Amino acid sequence: MDRRDFLKQGVLASVGVGLGVSSLFAASCAGANDRIVLALVGSGGRGLSCIISCCKINKNVTIKTVCDVNSTKLAKAVAEVEKELGYRPGATDDMRAIFDDKDVDAVWVATPEHWHTLAAIWACQAGKDVYVEKNPSVNIFEGRKLVEAAKKYRRIVQIGFQNRSAPYGFTARDYIASGKLGKIVTVKCYNLLGGGKWIEAPETPVPSWLNWDKWLGPAPMRGFSSSIVDEHGRGGWLCYWAYGGGGLSDDASHVMDLCRLVIGDPGHPKSVYGWGGNHIFGGMRETPEFQSIVYDFGEYTLTCDNACATGYMTKTPNDIRYDKTKFPDWRNNATRTEIYGTEGLMFLGRHGGGWQVLGPKNEIVAQDGGVMPDNEHQINFIESLRSRKQPNGDVEECHRSATLVHLGNIAYRVGNKQLLFDPETEKFTNDDAANKLARGAYRKGYEVPENV
Ligand SMILES: NC(=O)c1ccc[n+]([C@@H]2O[C@H](COP(=O)([O-])OP(=O)(O)OC[C@H]3O[C@@H](n4cnc5c(N)ncnc54)[C@H](O)[C@@H]3O)[C@@H](O)[C@H]2O)c1
């Protein structure tokens, strides 16, 4: 019996005993090698390369359909799948066709960020499992709704924070949990990247290769600018609050997510102070050129410095990020975390690079190497689909990591303020404007529902 027959039988049995909607979609424990059919929503560089890799490194996993609203990228994706995997997938510009397709087991969402949550919720509602890229949400409200949808429909939802599958992250976590670093004093996350002055190009008619209405989806309608979307590459959508959270959600989110895992996945902070601006280049970007954020976790602070103006800093170079025996020079490592305990200082890499602990004489007292864990995360997703065990990119923990991004950005957007945050209600207690941003707003027909 294959997985679909098994599922169908499970559904009929559930109906027979009168169980509710979540049970209808609760998938079976499928066999370890059962065929899994994937579909891709958003065939840019990231989604296409990851889904092809996932099919190569896992047995019996295929892509039935690719979906994109950019016809150039869609055609390229079909050709690329054929070249790499030896068959031609179907193509559509309407993700709903994928959700309606009973052959599809799981949907891979790699659109720009403003579509992540809604597409993932629609997929859950249709009974599909989901791999959804980071940052999983563009506001705190919708992040919580995705957690609720995953639970309600009993879906496997793997968030694309791949460092949660890094073996060196687990050994760093164990080292800190063992008490060898002492009590945590303070934690510093860095995402110090390069960039330049960003200016928006004037609006032009929508190009023939793009379905602009569908690209915008939940975001407000506006005129097309080539600064937002590029025919072949990514474009500048991360510079706009409507489509993403800037460098903080693009890269710093990974640094802070891995850091949270390593320090034991603390709950939400009690407050955030965020400062930022475009003081460096004076560009037109909405998401700022530089941000400095302090999160209050009660017994220690976590800070994050995020820049697109410090190009002399380097992401962990390729010869180190894929070699477990090498460590970066932490001094100019752009995406490092420093965890200061009472007994030592841990440096932690985000693009592989592993971790090292320095003692009082600047000597290395412990270390573990590590490489970029994309493969591990893709393998973990497929194993979870088959075992029905929750994946490493746990939707609740990743929502908490994503919330750090939203807190920092909201504190900046309401005027570089300190905001008090109630971890239970996920609301601010001292700023109504901040709560409005945490809730977000949606274009008609694309609302993230209060009741998923
Ligand atoms: N986990 C990581 O390390 C990592 C690395 C790179 C990118 N990402 C994330 O992956 C996502 C994609 O990144 P990218 O660089 O490929 O961006 P991209 O903008 O090049 O690709 C996104 C694609 O989604 C398509 N799209 C937009 N609206 C759509 C819709 N309604 N239906 C179908 N397709 C739609 C776009 O046309 C585009 O082709 C982003 O959210 C990014 O943050 C994650």
Summarize the topology.
Elements: H1 3-16, H2 21-25, E1 36-41, H3 45-57, E2 61-67, H4 71-85, E3 90-92, H5 95-99, E4 106-109, H6 113-125, E5 129-132, H7 140-152, E6 157-159, H8 167-177, E7 184-193, H9 212-216, H10 246-262, E8 271-277, E9 290-296, E10 301-308, H11 318-321, E11 337-341, E12 345-348, E13 355-358, E14 364-368, H12 374-387, H13 395-413, E15 418-422, E16 427-428, H14 432-439
Parallel strand pairs: 1-2, 1-4, 2-3, 4-5, 5-6, 7-10
Antiparallel strand pairs: 7-11, 8-9, 8-15, 9-10, 11-12, 12-13, 13-14, 15-16
Written overview of the protein:
The protein has helices at 3-16, 21-25, 45-57, 71-85, 95-99, 113-125, 140-152, 167-177, 212-216, 246-262, 318-321, 374-387, 395-413, 432-439; strands spanning 36-41, 61-67, 90-92, 106-109, 129-132, 157-159, 184-193, 271-277, 290-296, 301-308, 337-341, 345-348, 355-358, 364-368, 418-422, 427-428. The protein has 452 residues and is of the alpha/beta class. The strands form 2 sheets. It has a 10-stranded mixed beta sheet with strand order 14-13-12-11-7-10-9-8-15-16. A 6-stranded parallel beta sheet has the order 3-2-1-4-5-6, sandwiched between helices. α3 (45-57) runs parallel beside α4, α7 packs antiparallel against α13 and α10 crosses α13 (395-413). The chain is globular, with a radius of gyration of 22 Å. The two termini are 32 Å apart. The model is unreliable at 1-29 (pLDDT under 50). Bound molecules: nicotinamide-adenine-dinucleotide. Nicotinamide-adenine-dinucleotide is lined by residues 41-47, 67-70, 73, 95, 110-113, 115, 133-134, 160, 162, 214-215, 217, 234, 250.
